[in-house]
Amino acid sequence: MQVAIDGPASAGKSTVAKIIAQKLNFTYIDTGAMYRACTVIAKENNIDYGNEQGILAAIDRNEIQLKAVDGGQKVYAGDKDITRDVRLPEISANVSQVSALPKIREKMVSLQRKMAGEMNVVMDGRDIGTTVLPNAEVKIFLVATAHSRAQRRMLDLKQQGIKSDQTLKEIEQSIQERDYKDSHRQISPLKKATDAVEIDTTEMNIDQVVEAILVQIKKSQKNI
Ligand code: DC
């Protein structure tokens, strides 16, 4: 079974996707972390964020892997654990540019489809329902105001112990810039699939969002 959860930055996708995967004993796949890993690999190899061939070659030398650990997920580039690096503000600021490169997307999408073909998955991202898994049994599109997403992002960084000099206003601005870039790129832009269920999480807590998604999953299971 495939559950696709899409939506803009910091709408709560990964938090709820992890919980749902754990409840259903499915594998959680954070596709944003894969594009972030490409960006970290570019940075560490001093490759320009627009150099598609250079980044592709570096990814071939440093295989990107997602490893499940106690309900969470670790990100590796080759044998290096880059789980923390992928969340750094410099990576957040440049991942939209790297993830817009067509050949990088091609490579990541093919990896994502391979994983989804081998196991039951909850996959979160921007184009899962539209492009990666167009036949997913359940498609969810999470939205929330930019302000509430900025508040969540700030809390996330704090909880992960990542120091950032950005104010709430600056985080909100960078989220809006990323939304714009992600929704306006040429290849598989951030877009709600026509058959996705939209959930506005602005006024909802995590348990309520999880519950709303589980209802959709149960509905789809009845239809199988
Ligand atoms: O979900 P996130 O913020 O970790 O994603 C990081 C970036 O990766 C996001 O700005 C856009 C890109 N992305 C994408 O293009 N397609 C996906 N399926 C997931 C993320």
Automatic annotation (TrEMBL):
The keyword ATP-binding applies. It catalyses: dCMP + ATP = dCDP + ADP; CMP + ATP = CDP + ADP. Its main location: cytoplasm. It is found in: Cytoplasm. Signal peptide: none annotated. GO terms for cellular component: cytosol. Belongs to the cytidylate kinase family. Type 1 subfamily. This is Cytidylate kinase. It comes from Lactobacillus apis.
